Every structure is written in C-alpha cells, then in structure tokens.
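Look at a sample.

——
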Amino acid sequence: MKRVLVVAIAVAMMVSSWPVSAAGPAAGRPAGNATGAIRGTAMSSTGQMLANVTVPVRNLYTGQLAGSTTSNAVGGFNFAGLNPGSYIVEVVNHAGAIVGSSAVVTVTAGATAIVTVTAASAAGAQAGGAAAGSGVRTAVIITTIAAAAGIVAAIAIANNDSSPSR
C-alpha cells in the first residue's frame, strides 16, 4: 500500500510540473509566427483609464519578466514576440509597487490575447498604494515549495524499508 501511495504522489508531483517546462521556448520551433502577443488596457477599479503607468508582463510558471512597457494616454499597452505560454500582466505604480494584475493570459503562436488589467485605484496606480497583485509571485513560490516538499516526502516514504511490526 505504501508503494502505491508513493507512486501516486510522485506521479502527481511530476504532472504538476509539466506546464513549467512547456512554458519555455521549444526546440525546433519554426521561424515566423512562432510567437504571440498581448494587447490590453490598464484601468482603475472605478473604470478610469490609467495613462503612463508601468505595465510588466510576467511568465506565470517561472515568475520571470517577459517584458515591460508604459501605458499610452488612454491606458493601452501591447506586448509582441512572446513565446506561447501563460502570463500575468501587472500594473506598477510610480513607487514600484504592484497595484493590480490580470487573470492568467494564455499566449498562442500567431495570435493576440486581449486583456484588461485593473489596479486597486487610480490614485494608488499613480502614486503609492497596496500591492494588490503581489500575491502572484507568492503563489508561484508557495506552489514550488509545496511540490518540492511533496517530492521529499515521497522519497522519505519510499526509503522506509522497515515493516510496521518492528
């Protein structure tokens, strides 16, 4: 029974890590339309367009920045040349704090994903404020730590050769 449990845990941990390797660039990907784009609008929770705010895009699985731009006069932004994968678009205030983030944006080759990023408030986006979207990085780190802990636990169970009667 222990071996079945160990195998089940190990398989679950491996399956949960597959999208991480799929998020990076693929070897042998054909040139041309191998990348995608994200186009969107930055706005406040009250519906105001956020002009001239920093808008970074982050790879969801690695947490690494894939690019950064500044929104235009009507809050618009555009990212081109992104490898297919899952991304989060953030809004950063002038103090450098993340004040909003999008839902997960899936980028596919040859397509443009459309997204609206909502910041906590227009004042918070322009000046300072609470980091409403900072939980994204925390979630990635916690997930990674939990996966590593699960693998370590599975290995510890698998190495237990003693019988219950000893």
